[in-house]
Amino acid sequence: MSFESNGEIACCGGKLLKLSHKSNEIGSHMDVNIYLPKQYYNGDGNPIPVIYFLSGLTCTPQNASEKAFWQIQADNYGFSIVFPDTSPRGDEIPDDKDQSYDFGLGAGFYVDATEKPFADHYRMFSYIHEELPHALDKFFNRDAKKLEFVHNTGITGHSMGGYGALTGFLKYYGKDRYVSCSAFAPIVNPSQVPWGQKAFTGYLGHDKELWKQHDPSYIIKNVDNTTGSEILIHQGSSDPFLEKQLRPDLLLEAVKGTSWENKIKVNVVDGFDHSYYFVSSFVPQHAAFHAKNLGLI
Ligand SMILES: N[C@@H](CCC(=O)N[C@@H](CSC=O)C(=O)NCC(=O)O)C(=O)O
């Protein structure tokens, strides 16, 4: 599996690589950005841990690369950060019938679709958690293990991407993949909110029992927190999507009486909205959290 370069940009002490590759899962080309920190170029040769940042509705890999300010934190602690796309792209890819922003292109919701016409291309769960990490591993680690794409990794994301991060972390829990998970204003209970209900109906159909297998607020009840993991969440109090779409209270309610009770730290931050002004304000705290879990500090 090979990646083509669409540009290499000097940034902080390292480089942001804009890549694209042919994905077998998605059946078309996918763009992905990766920031290689200064330690990649001048470090001691130890493999560099990777954090995956899953973006929200309407995003491409550029939004977070340009506006989240992860790069300076990556240099501070010595991790790399991968910014995948949020859906398949291209003329042949089916979109929402009304071309709305919350379904179809830019809104793959990090699930493997089972419904036509989306099932052929919208395989974002398998792409993000299997194909992409292994493809990056093969490409970057041909000669020596330079970057840890598959094991001892972190995952985070914003909004729809926060949903994707929570789901991936929980579904792979105990499987030597993600050792650290955080989220910015995540959709925590998609089965119960309009964005999630629209996506799940379109990608997965009408079976609400099946939806539960893709919903962190249900999945978490069947995952034993064997290592005392904590999940860090920030949520703006002035986020216009808080009451209708995000509802972090539903996740806290779901974990009551489970091994995750008191392990999910929801920080409601006064006056912040849903934008990258909010995300970038709390990236330093999330970076420190992941760095600790990844053994960097
Ligand atoms: N209608 C709005 C809503 C889209 C929006 O706010 N997208 C967020 C993520 S929302 C949840 O997944 C986003 O990250 N936007 C891109 C950005 O750079 O801010 C709209 O279309 O703006």
Automatic annotation (TrEMBL):
EC number assigned by the record: 3.1.2.12
Subcellular location: Cytoplasm
Active site residues of this protein: S159, D239, H274
Biological role stated in the UniProt entry: Serine hydrolase involved in the detoxification of formaldehyde.
The entry's keywords: Cytoplasm, Hydrolase, Serine esterase
InterPro entries associated with the record: AB_hydrolase_fold (IPR029058), Esterase-like (IPR000801), S-formylglutathione_hydrol (IPR014186)
GO biological process: formaldehyde catabolic process
Reactions the enzyme catalyzes: S-formylglutathione + H2O = formate + glutathione + H(+)
GO MF terms held by the record: carboxylic ester hydrolase activity; S-formylglutathione hydrolase activity
Protein name stated in the entry: S-formylglutathione hydrolase
GO cellular component, one term: cytosol
Protein family according to the UniProt entry: Belongs to the esterase D family.
